[in-house]
Amino acid sequence: MTTREFDLIVIGAGAVGENVADRARQGGLSVVIVERELVGGECSYWACMPSKGLLRSGAAIRAARDVDGASQAVTGKVDIAGALRRRDAIVHEWNDGSQVEWLQSAGIELVRGDARLTAEREVTVDEPDGATTVLLARHAVAVCTGSAALLPDIEGLQDAAPWTSREATSVRDVPASLAILGGGVVATEMATLFAGFGTDVTVIARSSLLGGMEPFAGEAVETALRDAGADVRTGVEVDRVARIDGGDVVLTLSDGHEVRAQQLLVATGRVPRTMDLGLEHAGLTDGEWLDVDDTLRVRGVDWLYAVGDVNHRALLTHQGKYQARAAGDVIAARALGRDVHDAPWGAHAATADHDAVPQVTFTDPEVASVGHTAASAEKAGIGIRVLDYDLSWLAGASTYADHYRGTARAIVDEERRVLIGATFVGPDTAELLHAATVAIVGEVPIDRLWHAVPPYPTLSEVWLRWLEEFGR
């Protein structure tokens, strides 16, 4: 058994843990990071990067097919082997060598193995070779272990060996048919992907698609999935699942119908990766989400931080990395007796987690959103004005594609006359999102936005159309 001491121990070397460690190291602390799988984590190898890389092939073909002069050059479908090769290159064949080299260059120690808290500020790591290392933290421990796919309590589901997002994004043999349980971001993105591969896709959702977003977003994605040949069944649940003699999966639905598919993907939510973490040594319970303040410190435990998915604030890589920058900086500041800036929008506060979270769903069409929807703003008691615009009316849309379809909605706080929410639905609308995020975070007055002139002809001209509808 080896014992080592550092200022900060980070459990989990995904994108979030890496950023916590890096910022604390830059702040003057000694840092060790513990990882049981690949350095770079879920986003790099099984989520954001491989999924968006795989989706791009189909999106590029669809875009070309909607431009006369380019469509004639498209003579086939997605080349699945080529798409998978591209995915493999993006994930470096699931080799984390370059990420390990980066840790070393940043002065961050790496210990591989399973970590658990064994006392206050103490982490014990069981390494793959059977060795045990005890790590002691002078100042803090940061839990950055992320989340895992939720498998709902459905009869026969576990025995059917379903896919989660990990199996879907690391697929080697594309199934002829795929049933997808869920209607959220992962479910709709994977439905878009596999329908583009030519798989017979059935989506089963107990409510509408992309619930929680503006209703027109889910409606547009559902229409596109149906147009792509997918069978979309909403308002229905799965009662039972059975794998037939190691072959197809049969799902019995609450409406009495059955769905049969070669493979089943479950995308119904996430659970925290806090099992067997020894949280009782911090007065907490294993398996639960960790409640934190805006500096990402676990409430009631002055030496423990929880950053990224594990705190359930915003389960998105970019928000986790945003939290990580604040957390790494504040851990260093507290350890070295520096000033702590934890007021709203301070350097050490993850204020944007509350009402300014941007998200892109890479479906067909793309859905890009930030801040409030009309429903959430009304629920919060904010007096709003809703501004809707058909993106196909823009000159930029006509130059972009021959049959561009899309919608943009702005949510304006009428009393303060500032933007508090925006949703864009349409091809490549992800590139419109950051301007809306800046306007919301900066609380830019509507009157000032008149002086932010959008270039012509582009889709960003929608900002002028919104302003014209709102009026001076």
Automatic annotation (TrEMBL):
<dbReference type="GO" id="GO:0016491">
    <property type="term" value="F:oxidoreductase activity"/>
</dbReference>
<feature type="domain" description="FAD/NAD(P)-binding">
    <location>
        <begin position="6"/>
        <end position="318"/>
    </location>
</feature>
<protein>
    <submittedName>
        <fullName>Dihydrolipoyl dehydrogenase family protein</fullName>
        <ecNumber>1.-.-.-</ecNumber>
    </submittedName>
</protein>
<dbReference type="InterPro" id="IPR001100">
    <property type="entry name" value="Pyr_nuc-diS_OxRdtase"/>
</dbReference>
<dbReference type="Pfam" id="PF07992">
    <property type="entry name" value="Pyr_redox_2"/>
</dbReference>
<keyword id="KW-0274">FAD</keyword>
<comment type="similarity">
    <text>Belongs to the class-I pyridine nucleotide-disulfide oxidoreductase family.</text>
</comment>
<keyword id="KW-0560">Oxidoreductase</keyword>
<keyword id="KW-0285">Flavoprotein</keyword>
<dbReference type="InterPro" id="IPR036188">
    <property type="entry name" value="FAD/NAD-bd_sf"/>
</dbReference>
<dbReference type="Pfam" id="PF02852">
    <property type="entry name" value="Pyr_redox_dim"/>
</dbReference>
<dbReference type="InterPro" id="IPR004099">
    <property type="entry name" value="Pyr_nucl-diS_OxRdtase_dimer"/>
</dbReference>
<feature type="domain" description="Pyridine nucleotide-disulphide oxidoreductase dimerisation">
    <location>
        <begin position="357"/>
        <end position="463"/>
    </location>
</feature>
<dbReference type="InterPro" id="IPR023753">
    <property type="entry name" value="FAD/NAD-binding_dom"/>
</dbReference>
<dbReference type="InterPro" id="IPR016156">
    <property type="entry name" value="FAD/NAD-linked_Rdtase_dimer_sf"/>
</dbReference>
